[in-house]
Amino acid sequence: MEDTRPATRGGAARRTGQERRGAVVAALMLSMALAALDSTVVSTAVPQIVGDLGGFSVFSWLFSGYLLAVTVTLPVYGKLSDTFGRKPVLVVGAALFLLGSLLCALAWNMAALIAFRVVQGLGGGALQGTVQTLAADLYPLEERPKIQAKLSTVWAVSAVAGPGLGGVLAAYADWRWIFLVNLPIGAVALWLIARHLHEPQREPRAARGPGRGSSPRAREGRKPVRESSPRARVDWGGALGVFACGGVLLTALVQGGVAWPWWSVPSLGLFGVGLALAGLVVVVERRAAEPIIPGWVWRRRTIAAVNLALGALGLLMVAPTVFLPTYAQSVLGLGPVAAGFVLSVWTLSWPVSAALSQHLYRRIGFRDTALLGIGAAALVLLAFPFLPYPGAAWQPALLMLVLGAALGLFQLPLIVGVQSTVGWSERGTTTASVLFCRQTGQTIGASVFGAVANGVLAARLGGAGDLDSVTRALDAGTAPESVRRAVASAVHAVYLGASCAAALAFLVLLCVAPRRFPVLGEQERAEPPTADEQPEGRAEQRG
Description:
This protein is an all-alpha fold.
């Protein structure tokens, strides 16, 4: 964590500390912008990229390859940041992302571009996880909503500006500039991080506590035993296993029902290999001294509940982000720009609601604030199928505005709360596990809801067609009114499924999460714990 406390009580020292922290925050926002802009900028340039490089049949891997690399590396980078510090992980991640961007701009065919997008994703995983972890390191609990609101604003601005920026660069320059513009932004972020982010020297982590059979009292009372060598141990076998297992299973989810049928040999084979690798990862991690995915991530009620709840958030977010633009164009008859606006209005209310959530969770607690937010989100999602057909554009836009406000109350208190229950040396792993579950939820949601939408369309149209082919027919003006109604029914079914995901998140928080998160004291949050199994409940959050 950056040491922003002044060495003296003088005003000059305080100003220096504030300026240094401000520079680091600026670097974090720039780094987050790199990751946030990526998919939205690239999506609008796909026609130009395909026209230049070819490879229309595999262009979806421009997004899938990047998403897979980001998702499977999140746990690895989280553990590495706890082991070696945030700065080296963030610098390496930013450098990898910039290298991937440069290579993408130099790509000579679609296969090369997809491979270089994977390199970008390897860096993007470090950017997403480490930025969120550093945000918690830089600010105490009382001030943490400030930095989180700034990062939420970066995502909101990127969602609105990204498609326009990508379209302008593709139309008036060249699609390769979409990747080249990352270089100066990333260079400034790297310079600010190298110059202003200073992490204090930390002692080696304590050796592992007593074995699984030891009592909690023995684990709590055990004196720390320092390792004889300061050299940190890295579970590279576990990292490779997590990467391979996650890559195989996520590929099966992304390509199932798209590149091949769900019950085909490739789909079943990938799932079989993925499950076998998952079993191997469990064995390796149980034997590792410092596992990449430690067992306490799921043994502690607070972290497990937040992981499951944000996994459900990733699941339900697929409904608006993937299916609402299709609904707006196919059912409401809007153009691409207007359809994008209907979706983007939730980025206006989300950061505002997140910034204001602190006034609520300080009164009623993290869990109850999140329950209020996800309960409202479930009602909004449930209301979508009751919109009139075909309806007006302001109706779904209004629902999206309310949905953004509800999800702002839900996500930020959970992230701030769970980060406050762990010390410095566990914060990276905890943050990465939360983001990993959210990303995995989005991947599962895209597969599940895609199958739901195609199933409804097949039932309404007599067993013919899927959402992609029907949407192309509607865009060409060759589809009858019955097809529009079928698309509306398919999207309504997806929103019903998303409301079920919100209800699941509500139940998880209500039944699994403690009513008061066990927030640590400021000193405990800043220092590594002295035992592997740090007990929850050291200090309770006050409402």
